[in-house]
């Protein structure tokens, strides 16, 4: 592939991640304003943005923007869009497709974790990215983590993702939902992190436009279904006991992210921005 | 060394760890009863013990006892004494002294983490252990993590450990306090976990009795100085803002234990008891 074509792909991918971020932030701010349920005394949340740059030299560079809102529906929601380039460490390059002999990489992506205040509203994670080494591929996914036994939330989340997948390939949903269940699993506790979703990586079918379209579809499916779930739960009353259960589930979320998550590991190993990487950690967690 | 001598060393070491556990638990329960300061409404803590056994077969076995107290001074304190044996995984055996060609191991130790409720009382960690592969050695240490800027607490803690070290070897304190500072460090944040202490490993000087005596001395120094620090701080009043600062510091403690701590990694990799390993995590933490 010509280097001009690759540059165009990079530009299109990173522009999409920023566009998606803006739509998600708008929607979440709208939800903050719509909220009527308890607690009433908190003020409406607004996203605050913070830019960061990667320690730069001839090889390494880039940066990103963290958008964080601490609101009444969203106790803490962080969205990070970053576009970075550099060289993997020799040890890390061995683990990355296409970096075995040339450790240079370029990566752009959006990642989001929402920690709603109401324990009836599930926590959610979304991440999609475009990576370029001597090869180029998309990866990402989204998964739902109900804090209390979920009713229809998980079912509707899965249905929305299945619909999105089916528009692109008959095998995608079965394959990527299984991958998600395998990935978001805490081996030390033999328990899943949540209710699952989809997870994909190394997506390079040979048709870049199709892969990009699928990646966009995942973002749009998230943008459609998660706000629906939040809106139908956010005004439900909750008890102190349910809040305590939520803090314990959030503790498990911390365990997964720090012990097992490859994205966290990737970020910390490539000198990513610590605040951006650990933005996913919950505002409060407990190990009683 | 004769196998009878090794068996005697194992028996003496594990008996000591149990003895030390009992003295520590007694002292902490006494402190719970002495407490007069706020909050008054909580009830006096008592340790509860829970035995666990390692999934056993011809090779693997052993187990331990977790002692946990949830009290008014000690919001959560866990002490685990375990004596286990088995085979390291091939990958892990490469990292362990004396296990390169024979992956069998035997290990006994005590580990403790205290999370006091009052943010003026520092968090503390103690761990000493005796490990046997084709070689045998002691390791461990203790370190203090003040939640608020420490005044004389860190100074007195260091002085007690220096005194203990100096009774055994003129170089120990300099060497082991440096090792502690290097070990209890969060590279991703470029910050120490706390105020330090001592950390040692691979202690096999050739004089087993001397090494065992030093290991006991570390435990006794802890048993002398930490209760002094707790008693002088535990009745000091504190504010909600100081409590919030404590939760953030505790979040850093979680980050260290899950991202970096070798003891946690060792435990999870060798199929240790999850509750015992993660007992170190704080009752409440926050990433605001």
Explain this structure.
The structure is a homodimer of 288-residue chains. Helix content of chain A is 43%, strand content 26%. With 288 residues, chain A is of the alpha+beta class. Chain A has a single domain (3-280), classed as oxygen-dependent coproporphyrinogen oxidase (3-Layer(aba) Sandwich), CATH 3.40.1500.10. In chain A, the strands form 2 sheets. In chain A, strands 1-2-3-4-5-6-9 form a 7-stranded antiparallel sheet. A two-stranded antiparallel ribbon of chain A has the order 7-8. In chain A, β1 and β2 form a beta hairpin. The mean pLDDT of chain A is 93. The interface between A and B is medium-sized, with 22 and 22 residues.
List the helices and strands and how they pair.
The structure is a homodimer of 288-residue chains.
Chain A: H1 3-34, E1 48-53, E2 61-69, E3 74-87, H2 90-93, E4 104-116, E5 123-132, E6 136-145, H3 152-166, H4 172-183, E7 185-186, E8 191-192, E9 196-203, H5 208-233, H6 240-260, H7 262-269, H8 274-278
Antiparallel strand pairs in A: 1-2, 2-3, 3-4, 4-5, 5-6, 6-9, 7-8
